[in-house]
Amino acid sequence: MEKRVGDIVVGTAQADGKSYVCLLVETDFTTTNRGTGQLETYDVGVCLTGQYLGNKIRLDYLRVVLTSSEVIKIIETHGFDLHTPPELPDDRLPEAERVKRENQKLLKRLEALEAKLAAK
User: What is the pLDDT, as a whole number, of residue 91?
Assistant: First the structure.
């Protein structure tokens, strides 16, 4: 399978030679080694496991596990909503809208408490 940005891969980290599950964010990245002046080409992934969790790491070798489109299909089949746009955060809402949102949350809490009391 051809590697593409967005793929989930298992890659060998240049730093320690261990394998990590990563989200591939750059392919065939080329840089000049400051010490030797030689060109180095490697892939870059955001580590999803292990000690480098959340960090970008250089990958010497990799194997594609899933493409990004396959990941999206799996997520959707498990019921996650990938279509509803995000709401504005409370601190960016006009005061009237913020109060409405707070009231809605309080009403939901009240309904849950009433249901819990009615069940006893």
Answer: 85
Looking at this protein, which amino acid is placed at residue 64? V
Low-confidence stretches of the chain (pLDDT < 50) are none
Q: Where are the beta strands (DSSP E) in the chain?
A: 8-13, 19-32, 39-47, 56-66
**56 and 19 within one domain:** yes
Q: CB neighbours (10 Å) of residue 77?
A: 8
CA distance 83 to 97: 23
Residues 23, 68 within the same domain: yes
Q: According to the model, what pLDDT value does residue 20 have?
A: 96
Check residue 16 and give its pLDDT: 93
If asked whether residues 25 and 52 sit together in one domain, one would say yes
Taking the C-alpha atoms of residue 73 and residue 20, their distance in angstroms, rounded to an integer, is 23
